[in-house]
Amino acid sequence: MSTPLLELKNISKSYSSVRVLNNINFSVVPGEVRALVGENGAGKSTTVKIIAGVEQPDSGGEIYYNGELIHKMTVKHSLELGVSVIYQDLSLFPNLSVAENIVKGSEKKFFVGLNTYKKQASAVLESLGVDIDTSLLLSELSIGKQQLVAIARAMYSEAKLIIMDEPTSTLSSTEVELLFDVIARLKESGVCIIYISHKLDEIFTVADSITVLRDGEHIETGAIDTFDQEKLIKLMVGRELRFVPFHGTDIGGSGTTFSVNNFTLEPYFRNISFDVREREVFGITGLVGAGRSELAQSIFGIRKASSGEIFLGGEKISISHTNDAIQAGVCYLPEDRRTQGLLMGQTVTRNTTSANLRGVSNKASLISGQKEKKVVEEYIERLAIKLPSIESHIERLSGGNQQKVLISRWLNAGPRVLIVDEPTTGVDVGTKQEIHRLLRELANNGVFIVLISSDLLEVLAVSDRVLVMRNGNAADLVETKSASQESIMEKSLLG
Amino acid sequence: MTKLIKYKKREMILVLVLLLASFIIYSISPQFVSSVNIINVFNNNALLGIMSLGMMMVIVTGNIDVSVGASFAVCNMVVAAYANNTGGKNPFVAVLIGMLVGAALGAVNGIFVTLLRIPAIVVTLGTMNIFRGILYFITEGRWIEGLTGPFLGFANRRVLNIPFAVYMWIAVIVITYILLYRTRLGRNVLASGGNKEAARRAGIEPNASTLTAFIYLGILTGLAASLSASKLGIAQPSNGLGYEMTLIAAAVIGGTLFSGGTASIFGTFLGMLLLGIIDNGLVLARVPLYWQDLVTGLIIILAVASSAFQSFSKVRSRRKTIKIEGDPACQD
Ligand SMILES: Nc1ncnc2c1ncn2[C@@H]1O[C@H](COP(=O)(O)OP(=O)(O)OP(=O)(O)O)[C@@H](O)[C@H]1O
Ligand SMILES: [Mg+2]
Which residue of B has its CA nearest to A50? Predict the structure, then answer.
């Protein structure tokens, strides 16, 4: 074994009195791909921030880089040492161009050569295999493309250690392939990569070794072949976790339905029709960009479809604004929690109850703190949300826990129809199952569930029927009982 | 060209509004379009124009400075006092002193905002009163008049019939452009204005950007105050009252967003010009003074409303781009 590129010794971190990391020890060597895994709130992102100098560890811990003790790791210092991070929340600049986002932080000269940067940025994107106009503003890109920009940025910096915190959470499967190619190339040139993900199949594809964290403790580090999925999950969760695949319930008497008829909004989607039957979870899948989210947003009234009708329980409902949708009991969990979901700077409680304030109000129509607390605590328990306190600001929570809070919000809204768009993004394996179970249970209790997901395993496990969308068209409708991942994949690509 | 329309939409609209306003004023009072009057409009607004670019810079960092008017008065008096004592022999040194004093006042604001983390509006409301108060205390409200020597009137000197102050305005526009868009310093200002935490994680010190912006506004205020003393040959401690509102208006009309990170130098220039033309037009049309304030107020509201509309349509255009993104042809 060569000398470690980075070594953490007894790293701890506390926020006020809460200890979120406790004596973390591990090291990585050049050319290694190390997976860092753990449940939501285990301390992965915090570890990353300490390595990057964004957060300072408690005293007593030591960071060695190339065998040298770093007394105080600052952001500047870590950048100089060649550490580059793709943050879970991306940390990009919405007001700057793609080119500038890619070079920001790595510029050497005082005077800025715009065209040089543009060229260099384009070159990086090209080597990544994606086509994005570098003069666009970042805010004009979809969240998936922004993720690619963040990856390009890390590559541009020519770092020796690249940390990727859930880099694939918003990528399509083709783009994930591209990323894996890049990782292989980087590895070959001796770059070390710390890779964080909740997708275990990704980890077994890409990693050489794994470090498991649980509740801020270092549990185990070892070569990839010393692990299998079952063992890994057990180490992360701390107990045996059995996967119970769900089956579609018997869809008996199809009395009331939620139907969408001939929905069209060019150029996103056209002539989309489907019925969600009683006690059914209805899946919608397809490649990223197939028009799924746009369809959901139209149903919810965020962007009005040019034609189409919605029937709920035989009655036609007209939705021209999100308020109409919520009034009618149609709720939507958006795809991008940061820009479309969370109320930043607000407490966890307010984030949870905001879609159903009536439910936490007293007789005088004033919001009751007690009722709020009860509701929030119930979901914290149910979804195993890990948080400093229910009064802490939402941005203090780890990414996956933020997602769970959003899910709670819509569950709590008491929907008649619940459309969830990539509901388990960034959620750990254990809770993922719990969310699946919840969706199933809601369906059984009479809520119409529409599950939009690119994760085929998820779609197959939870939904009864799946609509496959391709290029904005309904490509096929399949019964999940008789479908496989491959057959759906084929349909979403070729039809 | 399409890019120009897409990214410079606001500036294009402003140019149209300017032309429209000019046309209306012209049809009421034809002397509006004479070279004398046009040069006058530029000359009368050069000083505020210079300062507006500094204000823009401060707003880009997500801050605001309402103490500029008071800083202007302080610089104005200091420069005049120096010119008075030296017989106006050395205009260059006088301007330099003005800019240094301005920079120091800007730094005071910047330090309070960054180190003590007090919101800029609170800090500068405070310093506005402190600067002005100290000035009145020291000067006891007295004016400085009868400036002489080369200092007097150098700002009015004309080359090609255009006053020096107008050249300075143009120079400051160019310098601001280079600073903001062509140096790492300026780019860092933009970046911190756009996403503070991301800036921090990219090794940029957002506080440094904020401090830079306040000092830059201070320097430009000092410059404008020196030019003012030279132009008028007189300085008084009540100078610069209400400047902050005009400067903020110019920047906002030009498309600078209070949320930070978005600026337009050309837009700010046009915004200043629009305010200037309307002032001028109302005078030419002999509209009573209080009506002028009303009209200016309306324009500011319209501008802010339109900037809200602009960010709204930005969200829309983003959705449109997502559609292009969603094009399956881009997928593989
Ligand atoms: N500023 C803060 N104040 C208080 N607690 C914090 C703060 N930042 C993070 N935490 C807590 O630290 C713990 C670890 O968070 P971290 O973001 O490292 O988790 P993670 O392993 O990355 O989880 P995820 O998989 O959800 O991203 C969480 O319980 C979180 O609530
Ligand atoms: Mg995390």
Answer: B201
